Amino acid sequence: MGEIKTSMKLKEVMKNYFHRLDNSNLVAWCTSVGPAEILRSFGFEVYFPENHGALLGATKTAEDNINHAVKIGYSPHVCSYTTADIGSSLSGNTPLKQHYGMKGIPKPDIIAYNTNQCREVQDWFMFYAKQFNCPIVGIHSPRYLNDVSKEDITLVISEMKALVKECEIITNKKFDLDKFKNTVRLSKEATHLWQDVLKTAKHTPSPITFFDGVIQMGPIVVLRGTQEAKDYYQLLLDELNEKNKNNDAAVPNERVRIFWDGMPLWGRLRKLSDIFKDSRAAIVASTYCNSWIFNEFDENEPFESTALAYTKIFINRSEQVKTQMLLDWVKEYKVDGLIFHDTKTCFNNSNAKFGLPQRIQEQYKIPTLVIEGDLCDMRLFSEGQSITKIETFIEQIEELKMSVNGKA
Ligand code: SF4
Fold first, then answer.
1. From the alpha carbon of 78, which atom of ligand 1 is closest?
2. Does the Cβ of 117 fall within 6 Å of ligand 1?
């Protein structure tokens, strides 16, 4: 019960991806919701430093590496993906060697970033542009949008085209529109399958939780635009649909359904997964896993649709839009309560800093809880206190449900 067998295949898919990176003579670095499709259409293997940041967090090697970055002047209060990753490049300690047998972090031929998620990526990637004396191209997306206007998209497209020019110079190849279209199509198909995977959690009991999702999202982050990502999610979807037919629950005797906003605590995934399981609560949806759903991809309009897909993401929207998106997910996944992770070193992916959880609770009568922690730096997580808060929150939801059902 609960185990996802397709995960064996995931290990192979990720291993092959890192093996190719290790042996490629054409490597691009890109932000996780950046223009990977353009880079891939030129034949670059694409490396994502954020994925490395997550790996540093999950392997509990982030803190030591953060200390190296702090020593050269990076504040311990800025994004711990940034500081852990920069520290790792300074120390030469990377789990990529041990976990994937790589020689080290692959050297970039070009670095591309998109500020649709935060401006920190610009500072982060600039560090490497200097270190490797490597060309860098930024897409400076308009931020915190209520509506996404034509002007916003025109601006993003013009910056995407500047990236195309730089890729032509580096590869000495002409841009191939058909290859780009094909890459966008593959991204579209993979992201649709990833969305279907996440939607299997609409079933009660859910066959998958947030803790599975953050592992299973590997290919949609690092292999968008490839057949491999598509094939993997088809396999995963088939298994989860089968689980739903058999009511095979990720959390046995699921009693409470939770939505998670914000980053994962990479260094405490197992611990938190066990806490929720023991409390018979399933985290059935999250802003984080939904961040790699791009409904707008359309190979017939590859620039326009890619610009729109990457500009419309949750993290880049106004509070008004975010609130509506959260309410829609609550309804869609039959959620009983929301947990907001106030991620100490990521201002951008934390929606608990300006009273949103309290407003949602008061206006929409949906229970909310804020816990304080971090994506990589577990020194910022008060574990005992947070676990007590989580357990109490789940008990309160159960009591609330019982009293409502009792009255009905
Ligand atoms: S969104 Fe947050 S975690 Fe991600 S790179 Fe930006 S600051 Fe770091």
1. 7
2. yes
- Cα–Cα distances in angstroms (integers) from residue 337 to residues 15, 18, 127, 360, 400, in the given order: 37, 38, 40, 10, 11
54 Cα to the center of ligand 1, angstroms: 11
Can you tell me the distance from the alpha carbon of 118 to that of 140, in angstroms, rounded to the nearest whole number? 10
For residue 15, give the 3-state DSSP assignment.
Answer: helix
3-6: long-range contacts at Cβ-Cβ below 8 A with a sequence spacing of 24 or more?
4/208, 4/212, 4/216, 4/236, 4/239, 4/240, 5/239, 6/232, 6/235, 6/236, 6/239
Burial class of residue 171, CB neighbours in 10 A (0-12, 13-18, 19+): middle
Spatial distance between the Cα atoms of 35 and 398, rounded to a whole number of angstroms: 43
Q: What is the pLDDT of residues 154-182, one digit of tens each?
A: 999 999 999 999 999 999 999 999 999 99
Closest to 124 measured CA to CA, from 93, 86, 98: 86
- The verdict on the CB of residue 84 being under 6 Å from ligand 1 is no
Residue 124 alpha carbon to ligand 1 centre in Å: 10
Query: Rounded CA gap, 354 and 159, in Å?
Result: 32
Structure tokens at 384: 């005992």
Q: Is the CB of 326 under 6 A from ligand 1?
A: no
d(C-alpha 379, C-alpha 326), whole Å: 29
Which atom of ligand 1 lies at the shortest distance from residue 50's CA? 5
Dump pLDDT digits (tens) for 5-20: 999 999 999 999 999 9
Distances (CA, A) of 178 to 142, 184, 185, 301: 28, 10, 10, 11
Smallest CA separation from ligand 1 atom 5, residue: 121
Q: What angle do CA 324, 236, 301 make, to 5 degrees?
A: 55
Report the distance separating Cα 167 and Cα 187, nearest Å.
Answer: 20
Residue written as token pair 């059902």: 405
Q: 346 CB less than 6 Å from ligand 1?
A: yes
Tell me: the pLDDT tens digits for 223-256? 999 999 999 999 999 999 999 999 999 999 999 9
Segment 286-308, tens digit of pLDDT: 999 999 999 999 999 999 999 99
